[in-house]
Design brief:
Layout lengths: L2 E15 L13 H4 L6 E2 L13 H8 L3 H8 L12 E5 L5 E5 L7 E13 L2 E16 H10 L20 E5 L5 E4 L5 H11 L6 H7 L3 E2 L9 E4 L7 E7 L7 H9 L19 H5 E2 L12 E4 L3 E7 L3 H4 L5 H35 L6 H24 L9 H14 L1 H50 L12 H24 L1 H11 L6 H11 L21
Parallel strand pairs: 9-10, 11-14
Antiparallel strand pairs: 1-6, 1-10, 1-11, 2-3, 3-5, 4-5, 4-7, 5-6, 7-8, 12-13, 13-14
Helix pairs in contact: 2-10, 10-11, 10-12, 10-13, 11-13, 13-15, 15-16
């Protein structure tokens, strides 16, 4: 049985952040962490201005990416117009280990925790929780079970014995002294059933709720300024690094289970049918350095949900923490995965926002229409900033990073999702523009009607060559009275003309139609000045014989 000499796993859990009441359009959710007593603290990046603290691996990480991606990840200093990075990172260090308890065949396993971080993104209501764990000398089936079962935010179902389906029997977060800080509650069916029944959302397991605190689920009745809701399903995306004695000794079934993050099984069997896996090597494996060089015998597996790197434990090229692939996995490849999953989370967030705006729209309520227009315009503005600042078709020109990011995007489906969302946003923006033009055209028509009828009175009085009332020498009080009467009469006539301007516009159109007889034109003229418009009488539809019963 193969043994994984060094195992490292990074969970990435994208979540949607809900707007904070009373905040501006661009919200700084991370500021809420500083308003309360929490274990989270801000993490400063390596670009501190002191070259003595800047390591070669930091340089290698930086030059991996294209300049536009560098500005997104690290910002721009000096007089650059881009400004700082839109990413804000917070970390907690009270959780030092995690104990994983399996249901039957394996003994409990403790993994060391390297990092527990929250990645916030400026102007995008998305946060990504990342948890990096590691251990040495684990059997391959144990690693496969960890990839399959660890990182479940809630149980998909329950087994006959009441345990959460596809989940671990128990997950316990431990402090530095080994004390349990929080534990999972997957077998608590009542909790999860009540949440779905009453709140229309799946509850979060107690261990993950503890890790996210003071953030709380949006549907929960618990108080909290930072509220979130899930964007995908119960499984968190995962990245894994496996150093084994002989990677060429792993079977095809082993690689398929790692790439798909499925449950463990005999190495000489396949988890799915042979027809389904016919294109596995082409679709899910990056084998640029596989089987061609003993010193660099490395295989990359990517299915979108899971990214796995497998290599030889005895080679420094693969295991060195600074210059080897282990260091690159924790930095360059982690950032590749972070960008890929951030893209999908942001697009799902935009789609959710558009769907919520449309569902709340009531065209009979003027206030609802105003809110809808405001939300769509704000979303359109944020989407434009996301497109020009955060969206990348390519992140690197280095062959390996470029190919793996393209594979990641392809399996996550972010490019077609982006294109679809862009069309939806543009369609809604065009609708708002056309609606504004329609309203403006109606206003112009009404003003044109008022001007047309005002022109009649103007020409009529102007043709007399004199004022209708010679009140220039009357006392001031009498002149003020005449002015008030004229103002009231003119205002009343103007308002009435505006009230019936639609009918007057139809009347003018009818009068200008040379094909209509004089009687029809006079009838249209009479209808236009009535206080209530007469109903339109439709010709009766031709009679139809009754259908046979």
């Amino acid at each position: 049985m193969a043994v994984v000499r060094h195992f490292r796993q990074i969970l990435l859990w994208p979540l949607q952040l809900m707007p904070v009441a009373g905040r501006d359009q661009i919200q700084r959710h991370w500021e809420q962490l500083g308003d309360t007593d929490t274990p989270w603290f801000a993490v400063e990046d390596e670009f501190t201005g002191d070259p003595a603290l800047f390591q070669p691996r930091h340089y290698s990480e930086f030059v991996t990416f294209l300049p536009s991606v560098q500005r997104f990840l690290y910002g721009e200093s000096g007089g650059g117009g881009y400004g700082g990075s839109p990413i804000r990172v917070f970390r907690r260090d009270d959780v030092r280990r995690v104990r994983l308890c399996f249901k039957e065949q394996f003994a409990p396993v403790e993994l060391s925790i390297a990092h527990v971080d929250l990645y916030f993104f400026y102007d995008i209501d998305v946060v990504i929780l990342t948890v990096e764990v590691h251990a040495d000398d684990l059997e391959l089936p144990v690693v496969q079970e960890i990839l399959f079962r660890f990182g479940r935010s809630y149980p998909a179902n329950w087994d006959e014995d009441g345990q959460g389906g596809n989940c671990l029997a128990k997950v316990e977060w431990l402090d530095g002294d080994g004390h349990v800080l929080a534990a999972s509650d997957y077998p608590d069916q009542a909790k999860y059933l009540k949440s779905v029944c009453c709140e229309r959302t799946a509850a979060i397991s107690a261990d993950w709720e503890f890790l996210l605190a003071p953030m709380v689920p949006h549907a929960s009745m618990r108080p909290g300024a930072l509220r979130f809701r899930q964007l995908e399903y119960d499984r968190m995306p995962v990245m894994a690094y496996l150093a084994v004695d002989d990677p060429m000794g792993l079977s095809r079934g082993d690689f398929i289970r790692l790439a798909m993050a499925t449950r463990s099984g005999p190495s000489d069997t396949l988890p799915f049918s042979a027809d389904f896996l016919a294109e596995f090597d082409r679709q899910y494996c990056y084998d640029r350095y596989w089987g061609v060089n003993e010193g660099a015998n490395t295989r990359f597996l990517c299915s979108g949900h899971a990214f796995v790197m497998v290599g030889e434990a005895g080679q420094k090229f693969f295991t060195d923490r600074e210059t080897g692939l282990l260091g690159q996995f924790r930095h360059q490849y982690f950032l590749l995965g972070l960008i890929a999953h951030f893209h999908k989370a942001a697009l799902l967030m935009f789609g959710d926002r558009l769907g919520s705006a449309v569902s709340r729209l009531d065209i009979r309520d003027a206030e609802s229409v105003k809110r809808f227009k405001r939300t769509i315009r704000q979303t359109f503005e944020i989407f434009l900033r996301f497109t020009h600042r955060c969206w990348f078709h390519e992140v690197s020109v280095q062959a390996q990073a470029k190919a793996l990011f393209a594979m990641w995007q392809d399996h996550l489906g972010t490019v077609p999702l982006y294109d679809s969302l862009r069309r939806e946003v543009q369609d809604m923006a065009q609708y708002l523009d056309s609606d504004g033009l329609r309203r403006q055209a109606n206003t112009v028509v009404r003003l044109t009607v008022v001007t047309t009828f005002g022109l009649i009175a103007t020409i009529t009085t102007g043709a007399l060559g004199m004022n209708l009332l010679a009140a220039a020498d009357d006392p001031l009080a009498l002149r003020v009275l005449w002015f008030g009467l004229a103002l009231v009469a003119t205002l009343g006539l103007t308002l009435y003309t505006l009230m019936v301007s639609k009918r007057l516009s139809d009347m003018l159109e009818t009068l200008s139609d040379q094909r209509l007889p004089l009687k029809a034109k006079l009838s249209a003229f009479a209808r236009a000045w009535r206080l209530r418009a007469s109903p339109v009488v439709k010709p009766p539809s031709p009679s139809r014989p009754p259908a046979d019963r």
